[in-house]
Amino acid sequence: MSDTPNEPPVDDELPEQMRIRREKRDRILADGRQAYPVGASRTHTLAQVNDTWGHLETGEETQDVVTVAGRVMFVRNTGKLAFAALQEGVGTRLQIMLSLAEVGQEALDAWKHEVDLGDHVAVTGRVIRSRRGELSVMATSWTMASKALRPLPVLHKELSEEARVRQRYADLVVRQEARDMVRLRAQIVRAIRETLHAREFIEIETPVLQLIHGGAAARPFQTHMNAFDQGMSLRIALELPLKKAVVGGVDRVYEMGRLFRNEGVDSTHSPEFTSLEVYEAWGDQFTMAELIKSLILAAADVAGTRQVTTAAGDVDLDGQWQWLSFYPALSAAVGEDVDVTTPIERLRAIARAKGVDLDPSWDAGKAAMELVAELVEPSCVQPTFICDYPAIAQPLARPHREKGKEGLIEAWDLFIGGVERGTAFSELIDPVIQREVLVDQSRRAAAGDDEAMQLDEDFLRALEFGAPPMGGLGLGIDRLIMLFTGAGIRETILFPHTKPEA
What we know:
Layout: H1 16-30, H2 46-53, E1 61-77, E2 81-88, E3 92-99, H3 100-103, H4 105-114, E4 120-129, E5 135-146, H5 161-166, H6 168-174, H7 176-198, E6 202-203, E7 209-210, E8 222-225, E9 230-234, H8 239-247, E10 252-260, E11 272-281, H9 285-303, E12 307-310, E13 313-316, E14 322-325, H10 326-334, H11 344-354, H12 364-375, E15 384-387, E16 411-416, E17 419-426, H13 431-446, H14 457-464, E18 470-476, H15 477-485, H16 489-492
Parallel strand pairs: 3-5, 6-10, 14-15
Antiparallel strand pairs: 1-2, 1-4, 2-3, 4-5, 7-9, 8-9, 10-11, 11-18, 12-13, 15-16, 16-17, 17-18
């Protein structure tokens, strides 16, 4: 093997299939023909041929000549006849036929000796319906459009998840489910945007690179800007710039974009993911609850059903979307009264009894959140807004307006199928209280909390100009796709992060 990692392998180091394909490419070029022409004079897509001539009866022929192109997904060669299936785009296929009488010996021999599965070819010929009932193009000529040097994965063998996500391009070629996922995701994203636009929300873009990370409790990715010699972070949330826009008078605003969190990776978490955040002046947690329900139902209608099967059980999105208060739900789960005043020592004892691990550094608020995560959230199969969180849960949410709920905030997390799908709160707009909260977060960060927020003076300055009362909403797009497909997060992301190949 070559000692230089970046050097391409020499021919005698290639697998046999790749060596044979490389030889075919070289032979095409040596004969003065093109293995990778700039294009093909295609007159019809495969779908257009299917739509236009799909009415032909078995054995019926036309004199209509077309030029089609696609990837060879099946090939069968006999003495005087060759068959192939071409594929394009979303998986549309069309049979082509090459007969000695129509294309001649030279073209037929070239096809048999040069074409492999995975090649792109262009074929010109008459549209017919074969005697076996297959709509076909009876070729009069063909050309190579792109010679594939690697064999495709075997169609009838199930690809491992790792192979699918690492080589998504090959996965898309051979697996219809992968192509369907791309289209469904695009349709759901479009439905979300259309729903928001119908409500007069404006889409804007905010910086990905930030001097100060904020808007969520998460560990950021760090980077460096050479031009200004500044440390920077990739954004962990969209919240703070969007709220600045609301301060400036953009009363209904949203962004759908990539977020980056330098944390664990599992079936529901990815270091890079897509999130929707929406902010509405004069809204609150209840207007946001109504909005997220509309968005999810719009996505369900695109997916084709409001009855969804999840690993936790069947979900009826047309049923009741219930509200579940945080501490009463926790009390019911542990069999004793627990509230915001319950001391950390008691919560640790409850956790030990329930087999829940708590970090020794956590305070009572974080401990209660972990208990709810382990004991309450998995049982929320039908749409459930867990609300009235302890203040530590959302440093940017406002204190609860109701008497008797001191120490709680106006915030909810939406769970469907036992998985969090979105979050929202009535936004904290008092700059004095917000400064106190962010100062406390800064102390936590200095004490070693990697997820604590930093003090953002520019955000506080914006609030000091006067922010209207507002509601804010966050919806994980990837987890929404997961809800309707049953797939893991790496399947819903077209090109997810993977570990380096050995």
